[in-house]
Amino acid sequence: FFVTMTIEEEADPPPINPPEIEGGGPSSRFVNVYQLDSYKIGQKDERKEKDSSVPARMSRMEQLYESEGLRRSVEGVLLVHQHKHPHVLLLQIGSSFYKLPGGRMKPGETEIEGLKRKLTNKLAPPNLEKEEIPAWEVGEELGTWWRPNFDSQLYPYLPTHVTRPKECKKLFLVHLPETCTFAIARNHSLVAVPLYELYDNHQRYGPVIAAIPLMLARLSCVCS
Questions:
Q1: Is the pLDDT of residue 32 over 80?
Q2: d(Cα 24, Cα 184) in Å, to the nearest integer?
């Protein structure tokens, strides 16, 4: 069955109507963004979290680093709009933890391959035939973030004194079709958060997600 997507906003901002412009593909600075209500949200089996806390996650990351080296991860920025204002789709775990869909890449996997696999795993309905798996149109690289140590600090640059970073995280814009169906683990929620709520809100969303409005500033959203 289907559930309603949560919208993280208190009041609607005044609508901004950009010019109607053709395009919105991976090579365009214009991005077609579609109405939130165009998408259906279903549920699938619960996903067990690998780590019960941030220290546990850092400990597991350190163990993997010893065997695999630098952690390479990718995350997708998916946009919808509500009343002509762009919103970012986030996965919410519990009452206060938010993350972008994505995760760690497998050894030898390209960034695009890894992101498409992660998007299918976290957002696509279960038990799809191969030809039914979403194509996931991965577009512009929006930013690269580095983790110098085994802690929660991430930077949009590699500090000059760091010679052995522990993680490299890349964000890509994912162009959504006009309509599709998502399926989210029962213990997660898919929330649509407006850009004005994310901007500089490090305390609630962390530095990477809070910086998404800045990463998108060079692009123009065409809300259909």
A1: yes
A2: 26
